[in-house]
Design brief:
With 514 residues, this protein is an alpha+beta fold. The chain has 18 helices and 26 strands. The strands form seven sheets. The protein has an eight-stranded antiparallel β-sheet. Helix 14 links the parallel strand 21 and strand 22 (396-401). Helix 4 crosses helix 5, helix 6 (156-165) packs across helix 7 (172-179) and helix 10 crosses helix 11 (313-323).
Amino acid sequence: MARGDGRLTHDLLPGEKGPQDACGVFGVWAPGEEVAKLTYFGLYALQHRGQESAGIATSNGTQILVYKDMGLVSQVFDESALNTLQGYLAIGHTRYSTTGASTWHNAQPTLGPTAAGTVALAHNGNLTNTADLVRLVEERYGSMKRGELAKGSTTDTAVLTALLAGDPDHTLETTAQEILPRLRGAFSLVFMDEHTLYAARDPHGIRPLVLGRLERGWVVASETAALDIVGASFVREVEPGEMVAIDADGVRTQHFAPATPTGCIFEYVYLARPDTTIAGRSVHAARVQMGRMLAREHPADADLVIPVPESGTPAAVGYAAESGIPFAQGLTKNAYVGRTFIQPSQTIRQLGIRLKLNPLKEVIEGRRLVVVDDSIVRGNTQRAMVRMLREAGAKAVHVRISSPPVQWPCFYGIDFATRAELIATGMTIDQIRSSIGADSLGYISTAGMVAATQQPASRLCTACFTGDYPIELPPTVHLGKNLLEQSALPLGNPEDGLVALLPGIGGAGALDHP
């Protein structure tokens, strides 16, 4: 076990960030199907896992095309774009940045020429030995190789693409068998050449990855909900330490490392869709049970239980059921407020949380409330919410949180605040209560949270709550979101490489092809 420091980001207040997952990945091998459209809808189902950029790569057997851009899935793709992406094999990606800046060059899938063709790669997670992998690229192929494969990119995904694409003497599959055991950290990958779809999951299985069956093909995806959306039946999870290959000969599989499962518990708390199943446990059921445990551990004398929608709703339902206090929707969420690149004016900024949430005064006025949320990061959102509820006439506000205090950053694919910015660092629970202005504050215990997942504690990563990291961390100098943007570890020159290899690359919605 190890302890470390770095970055972990919830998006309610302008400029206020909470937990955000790294990415969603999707892959499909299905001759006779419109694979680009299947991938589009699969990514749509995974939009919650990343809102910064989106991309799809397809192969018709002789050529791989990649179309990607900044923005939401629905903003990046239209009917015309999808119609250009023909083939029987596709992978897709929707990104939230945890390594490398949020720029077009860092959008995925990444693309690189191999000895026999092309590799396209999409990645959910975060590698912890990126600095070592950069050195391995340089040792094997020289510093120019990086620029050739990933022009201007500063992500661990680009480094991995360089390693997979760089070996002139072996097939992509053979190279993957040699490279995957060298990776450290969290990774759920989908990648492809012109003929074969691959999926791989790190030996700890920190990020989810599942395999599904179509009538005429196969699907891999970050969550089971994405299988449901495209009409695929769930087959099984990709196992920790496993690589799956899918082509015209069917599905074959091999393990590149022994499995030591320690899946991310925050997937159950917040990250995954409630209609997803992880390790056989419904995420919605787990969240409802967390609410029940929370009611047992931190009862309150109140008139109503209200959730912070949408992530707090299942736990609020559980809290109400266990406590016998009526459940009500006391906050209305604007369902159409998505990611925006427009900075709010000072007047709008002062309204804060009301951009996304607004109270129902007739429900709240004169009542004592239990307000259930999934987590507190910096506390700015909860502070504004408590103030808003009091202004709407709440008689008392008791805040209940369905996860323990977040005290440590994540290095495995969630972008949190720095440890110094986490409100639970160096503050008691009563001090946090006072800071956010609540009448009382209660967090679920780690044991209660774990019990709700129905998984053994030994099979779960709780590092952001406990500081116990299941994968050894490198020195601090080799950690951080901007590692590859530092002068000591450049990854490619924006003036050379990919443009020459991929002449179609360019502005909005650029179509890449070798």
